[in-house]
Structure to design on (401 residues):
């Protein structure tokens, strides 16, 4: 679908076009009196119906959850009123209503290929976001209707050039919209991938620090601790065998014990600080996400010492954001993370399309289950059509997390 900004600009440009197309007809009817009263009434009524339907259709597309049935119905009204407008009006300009309809075809047929009206996909299969086949068929159908009306009213001699001209105009508008939607889609994917890379880099950096600290702790304990212990024992023996050096040896013994105590304290401190800051990784992950709006509730310092569990938690949040953006078409996503002594619990709710009846889990949810299964975790997914999705997961911490 197009962005709200593009849709808003499209509404303004289209309504201006609609108003300009009506000026010659009104002038001919009121000043030159070259338009019959009945023809003027038919033209005016169909133009007004078209404008109201167009305004309602584009307004529907600006909603967080557009109704596919309502959107298609409004397109029908516009196409039919456009064909009627050609019957008695300024014929060359009136057919431009088809172009205005073509501007809306892609956003409408991007609503999961209008899945409520055309349930051709298998249960659980993710429908593509940008489908142009239905839009092209609609465009050809309304052009054929206008050509038929023009042929009845004015003869069939000029139908072919008319059809060629308006198909060209409509294709230009349709593929321009397709290009804009594809570009926006690609930008969303790129921005999300960038956020995921930044979050992963943060985890890798913390994991590297953790490995370095553990390595230093082992070295201090195995090497320095061992030698200082031996020094302390040797000095203690010297105290008993060399009474004349008792004072100096006792001081040396005290210093050696102090050094040994300092090494042990350093080892303890390094091991205690060897944790991964998951809070920072999650905040990095949600930065610059183009949509939906993410509300993150996470402890200020969520620290995990197990790199595997930290990675699983971040990957699950990443997948939740991806599903809300690509499949649920949600406007808001709420993520709450809570930790206790035994586990980390995450609850995520969105206001998207929800789960369709009989829908199977995709690769993303299966991947989340597999990751959590590695650490005896648990995942629950609940949702209903049009009521959003709720995800609850439990990540056990284990003895060293």
């Amino acid at each position: 679908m197009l962005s709200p900004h593009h849709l808003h600009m499209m509404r303004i440009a289209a309504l201006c076009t609609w108003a300009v197309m009506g000026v010659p007809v009104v002038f001919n009817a009121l000043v030159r009196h070259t338009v019959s009263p009945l023809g003027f009434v038919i033209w005016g009524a169909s133009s007004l119906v078209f404008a109201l339907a167009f305004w309602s259709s584009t307004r529907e597309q600006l909603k967080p959850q557009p109704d596919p049935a309502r959107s298609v119905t409004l397109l029908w009204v516009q196409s039919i009123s456009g064909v009627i407008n050609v019957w008695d009006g300024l014929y060359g300009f009136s057919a431009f209503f088809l172009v205005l309809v073509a501007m809306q075809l892609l956003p409408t047929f991007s609503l999961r290929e209008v899945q409520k009206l055309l349930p051709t996909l298998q249960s659980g299969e993710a429908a593509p976001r940008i489908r142009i086949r239905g839009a092209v068929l609609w465009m050809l159908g309304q052009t054929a209707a206008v050509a038929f009306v023009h042929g009845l009213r004015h003869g069939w001699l000029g139908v072919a050039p008319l059809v060629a001209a308006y198909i060209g105009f409509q294709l230009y508008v349709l593929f321009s919209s397709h290009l804009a939607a594809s570009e926006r889609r690609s930008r969303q994917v790129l921005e999300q991938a960038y956020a995921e890379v930044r979050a992963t880099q943060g985890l890798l950096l913390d994991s590297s620090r953790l490995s370095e600290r553990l390595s230093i702790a082992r070295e201090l304990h195995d090497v320095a601790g061992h030698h200082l212990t031996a020094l302390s024992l040797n000095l203690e023996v010297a105290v008993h065998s060399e009474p004349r050096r008792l004072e100096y040896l006792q001081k040396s013994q005290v210093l050696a014990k102090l050094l040994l105590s300092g090494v042990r304290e350093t080892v303890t401190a390094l091991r205690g600080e060897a944790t991964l800051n998951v809070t920072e990784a999650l905040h990095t992950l949600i930065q610059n996400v183009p949509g939906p709006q993410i509300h993150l509730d996470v402890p200020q310092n969520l620290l995990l010492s197990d790199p595997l569990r930290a990675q699983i938690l971040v990957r699950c949040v990443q997948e939740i954001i991806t599903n809300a953006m690509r499949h649920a078409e949600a406007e808001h996503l709420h993520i709450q993370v809570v930790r206790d002594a035994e586990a980390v619990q995450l609850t995520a709710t969105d206001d998207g399309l929800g789960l369709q009846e009989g829908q199977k889990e995709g690769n993303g949810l299966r991947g989340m289950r597999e990751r959590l299964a590695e650490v005896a975790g648990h995942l629950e997914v609940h949702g209903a059509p049009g009521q959003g999705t709720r995800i609850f997961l439990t990540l056990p911490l284990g003895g060293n997390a």
Observations:
- The longest strand covers residues 332-339.
- Residues 111-130 have pLDDT under 50 and may be disordered.
